[in-house]
Automatic annotation (TrEMBL):
It holds the Pfam family SET. One of its GO terms (cellular component) is nucleus. SUPFAM superfamilies: SET domain (SSF82199). InterPro entries: H3K4_H4K5_MeTrfase, SET_dom, SET_dom_sf. This is SET domain-containing protein.
Amino acid sequence: MQDLAALFDKSAAVLQHSLVGGRYLVAKHHLEAGDVVLQCPVLLTAQLPSWRKRICYACHRMCQARLALRCKGCEQVWFCSPACQDSTTPGSDPSHVGPEGAHKLNGLSDTQVPHQLLCPVLARFGSAKCGADMLCVLGMVLQLLGLQQLAGQAPSETQQRASAAVGAFEVLQDHAAELGKRERLEWLSALTFLRQALVKACWPEIPSLDELLPLVGRIISNSFGTYPDRGAQDSTEDDLLTQAADKADNVYQPLVSALSLPNAAAQMSPQHSLHGPGGSQLLPQFPSAEPSCSSISPACQPGMQQRQPPRALLPHACRANIAEETRSDLPAESSCQDMLSGSLQQRASQRARKPSTGLQHPDVAGPKGAQTQSIDVKAKCAPTTDPADGMDDGKQQGSGGLLVSESPVLDADNFPRHPRSETSVGRVLFLQASFFNHSCHPNCYVHRNPTGATIIAMQPIAVGQELTISYIDEQLPQAARMLALQRDFFFRCNCSRCSFGLREGSSRRKAKRG
Ligand SMILES: C[S@@+](CC[C@H](N)C(=O)[O-])C[C@H]1O[C@@H](n2cnc3c(N)ncnc32)[C@H](O)[C@@H]1O
């Protein structure tokens, strides 16, 4: 606990532990809406195969044009510039690469796993017979194995940082034991492929399946989905403040009103003293478009990015799909027990469904694109195809923004809706953010950019009060929320809103019957 606590030294959060609730974070001091609670770097991240030709492996920029520079060794990663390509080799000077700090692939500049280390293993990924999301997770497992290799090297700052990262990752909750039988078999099959790739690449130590499965268990239950975003790249301090205010007002106020929580509306109506003590001073300076990158890639030019309303949090693609399905399929007050018992059995098949329509990969044209999204175990017989091949770049949708976004979208009537039409482009794991518990009525939200995430208070938070974020679309009906949390995060939510909702649901049913 001592070392873990140090992860939060420079933040407004303190890690606590309770025998009943496990680890959780509380406010170190009073926070106002808009205050930054903490910033966490990206620990692991990977793109879905179909997006790799659009997203620079080094700086994580999403580009409109298909990237021209590909690693000749593995043929699995693409770069937006020679500088970005060079940055992945040890000893290079990363200072001129991409947006400020974006070369820090793992958010730990000195522990970025050199691409040369991973390249021979990635070279085998082209023949993988697993689905896109699984391949994405395998890529993150490989990065972690790379960090483990760095951690085993001779003492140096790099070694120390890698050891710290690996050590902290190992204490994240691992839900591998809760995988359904079918899912477990799927993962074992995918991990067997990874082991074979490691053997062929002469990896120094080949972990057993029993050692690899918990890594997957931690990654899938702690990672966020990444989404295309047009505009967040230029996030300014004012944008962040506005987002915090929008989120608090437009997202939670209607929810609170709908639930008629006593006193809650007042609590959820921050005074927006966003520039108050500890507010703006603490806000980070997000990297803006960087001349070195934009001068090379037209897609990185600020003029190419259209500002869009901020969007809401979603963990990853299959969660978005479930959200959409459950919204339409499920009555708001369905029995949660029924939902959950069904959900566990259906988890694998739900995940196997192809993403909903909406924003598609710019290269994807109809059914061909859908092929890459299936993670059905049977479908794994077909190699993962890359829809970017042979497509016309001129028909791409514009998308010059960041990979990740996490703020609400407003409908025409100004009521927040969820970006469920968005398709995930990959996954990302933030170490510190993994210690925030979920609430369906959270007091913080996560603003993400390619180099990391910033947790921001959405309302005044008293010293010692628990800090929570939402892992899902908290505007879903309770049954759907519970289903998504159980299915994707392996727990049953005990937040105050769910407890309240259960009582409300049963009393409404009673009232209907009566
Ligand atoms: C990302 S971790 C959060 C930190 C976690 N408490 C820990 O000790 O590592 C997510 C896990 O925390 C627990 N958790 C988070 N939010 C919860 C909630 N609202 N209700 C019940 N359990 C929750 C669940 O065990 C879940 O799998």
